[in-house]
Amino acid sequence: MSTTETASARFSGIEDWSPAELVDGIVEGQFAAIAAVKAASASIAEAIERSAERLEQGGRLIYVGAGTSGRIATQDAAELPPTFNWPYERAVPVMAGGETALTHAAEGAEDDGPAAREALAGLGLSANDVVIAVAASGRTPFAIAALEMARETGALAIGIFCNPGAAMVPISDIPILLHTGPELIAGSTRMKAGTAQKAALNCLSTGVMVRLGYVYSGLMVEMRATNIKLHHRAILMVARLTGASEAEAEKAFAASGDSIKLATVMLAKGLDRSGAEALVAAAGGNLRRAMQG
């Protein structure tokens, strides 16, 4: 069975390939990575559904990984607050070797299972939490320890890995195999495996946010308008959702305290800010429910 560590005979002479051939080979690997995510769609869908159930009860998304896998997982955690206004304290990255390892390799840190347990203990892990451990090999001690602790505390344990029969399988409530096979450069899992992990996390976290009502009509209605570009995007969203002009949308957006949801409800329902706040609160913060109310 081929793994991420297998040296493929097909790539044994890549040092003699032309730049164009190298690009073709690498791009081919990226397509294969996406195919591996597609093959795991049923498992990812289950992870979305079961994660949303925990998070509705106030749980957190806790991302765990080492090396490339940890950096990819940390990126997914970091992007949830600005994209969906998801609380920073509920998107928690746990990187082997700490923050320094995000930019400086700390290869030995992946073997420190006790450090993972200590980090999760410090977070006060609970049954409402979702622990997503990412490891291309599926046997990284840091990730293994995190999954074991998640199971012990009743948190949902999701393992994302790229090798069949990985050690993460029996200790994951939901094992997600992304079978990417040999890399163009054997063992360089920042390539096919990394792309597959990123795509799988995109599916998982975005799917969860949609299920929780953080997206409406395909728009990021929870987005924070923290710069000029995003401020303009927010106004366009309000205009699109309500049929108002940009000028009307901008006025409502300002009156709402820069809230896409409140501005949309204000215009759509003919309410002032306090009225819109009451309606959105009654809908549990879900814009779709508020608009249907």
From TrEMBL:
Keywords: Carbohydrate metabolism, Lyase
InterPro entries, sorted: Etherase_MurQ, Glucokinase_regulatory_CS, MURQ/GCKR, SIS_dom, SIS_dom_sf
Keyword Lyase set for record: yes
Residue ranges of domain SIS in the record: 51-214
Pathway: Amino-sugar metabolism; N-acetylmuramate degradation; Cell wall biogenesis; peptidoglycan recycling; Amino-sugar metabolism; 1,6-anhydro-N-acetylmuramate degradation
EC number, as in UniProt: 4.2.1.126
Gene3D superfamilies linked to this entry: 1.10.8.1080, Glucose-6-phosphate isomerase like protein, domain 1
Record's catalysed reaction(s): N-acetyl-D-muramate 6-phosphate + H2O = N-acetyl-D-glucosamine 6-phosphate + (R)-lactate
Entry-linked HAMAP family: MurQ
Further facts: A lyase-type mechanism (elimination/hydration) is suggested for the cleavage of the lactyl ether bond of MurNAc 6-phosphate, with the formation of an alpha,beta-unsaturated aldehyde intermediate with (E)-stereochemistry, followed by the syn addition of water to give product.
Subunit structure: Homodimer.
Known role: Specifically catalyzes the cleavage of the D-lactyl ether substituent of MurNAc 6-phosphate, producing GlcNAc 6-phosphate and D-lactate. Together with AnmK, is also required for the utilization of anhydro-N-acetylmuramic acid (anhMurNAc) either imported from the medium or derived from its own cell wall murein, and thus plays a role in cell wall recycling.
Name of the protein this chain belongs to: N-acetylmuramic acid 6-phosphate etherase
Native source species: Devosia enhydra
Name of the gene: murQ
